[in-house]
Amino acid sequence: MVNIGIVIPAAGQGKRMGAGYNKQFLALRDKPILAHTIGLFEESDYVSEIVVVGAEGDIATIEELVSFYDLKKVVKICIGGVLRQDSVCTGVRALSPTIQRIVVHDGARPLLTLPAFHKFLKETETNSAAIMGVPIKDTVKQVDSAGNVLETLPRDYLRAVQTPQIFDRGILEEAHERASVSSYYGTDDASLLEWIGHPVHMVEGMQENIKVTTPEDLWLAERILTMREKER
């Protein structure tokens, strides 16, 4: 489980947050969300390289953040594409050729813990494509375009997908290449593997591993960190 490369897509502008700038620069406990996210992988002995992919207008800010927090494993800060899929593809290409195991993790998921990450690596070391997911708590119904309920989906077989997601480099690059040629866009990298017919394994994720998208999410993230401090 050594020599792992991390790709962190951080180009989203987070309009739902309403901050007027990239949500990943918002402070979480007096530290930018993105700094929390990168810092987790900086601490891992299994991680060799980190590539951060941001919007063109954010590159200087990300460079300052990486320098200020002394994040030495960040080897490249790249300009992202129009969609997340384009950004991840750019990040993968920026990793050294020696990196053959790649983890993709959302820049706006700052609450992953080091033990959970290492457990994920251990549980997926024999899988060429694997992801985190958590059971769905709510009843989920499928509706049509008019809002009419078509059916109630069985919760036992539904998961809310998270990152990190881990892939062998060759199969991830193949999926991105084929998707690019066919102009196919998936909702995450795992969906590209599914699209080309490659098996994807899922392991249990963390309920706390939320994606900070709205002001309510930021409030919840603060509460989670407070709870963790009390438990120490």
Automatic annotation (TrEMBL):
Name of encoding gene: ispD
Gene3D superfamilies assigned: Spore Coat Polysaccharide Biosynthesis Protein SpsA, Chain A
Top-level EC class: transferase
HAMAP family in alphabetical order: IspD
Keyword tags: Isoprene biosynthesis, Nucleotidyltransferase, Transferase
Name of this chain's protein: 2-C-methyl-D-erythritol 4-phosphate cytidylyltransferase
Residues under site feature: Transition state stabilizer: 16, 23
Organism: Desulfosporosinus meridiei (strain ATCC BAA-275 / DSM 13257 / KCTC 12902 / NCIMB 13706 / S10)
Family that this chain belongs to: Belongs to the IspD/TarI cytidylyltransferase family. IspD subfamily.
